[in-house]
Amino acid sequence: MYEDDAVLVINKPAGTAVHGGSGVSFGVIEQLRRSRPEAEYLELVHRLEKTPAAC
Questions:
Q1: Torsions phi, psi of 8, nearest 5?
Q2: Which residue in 16, 18, 15, 13 sits closest to 42, CA to CA?
Q3: Assessment of whether the complete model's pTM goes beyond 0.70
Q4: Contact 52/46 with Cβ under 8 angstroms?
Q5: CA atoms of 52 and 42, how far apart (whole Å)
Q6: Which GO terms describe its biological process (predicted)?
Q7: Distance separating alpha carbons of residues 25 and 36, to the nearest angstrom
Q8: What's the pLDDT tens digit per position in 19-52?
Q9: SS (H, E, C) 8-24
């Protein structure tokens, strides 16, 4: 959705794991870290805004 030198914004599909755990070994953050090894500070910020459609 958006990317610059400091921020990467994605709109992940519902049901896709954000990170591994609870039976999920590989989520979006692991995929991003693997594909961008030069990204030293790649971390998650969860939902910034929850629209009525997401309720």
A1: -130, 120
A2: 18
A3: no
A4: no
A5: 29
A6: pseudouridine synthesis; RNA processing
A7: 18
A8: 888 788 888 889 999 999 998 888 888 766 666 5
A9: EECCCCCCCCCCCECCE
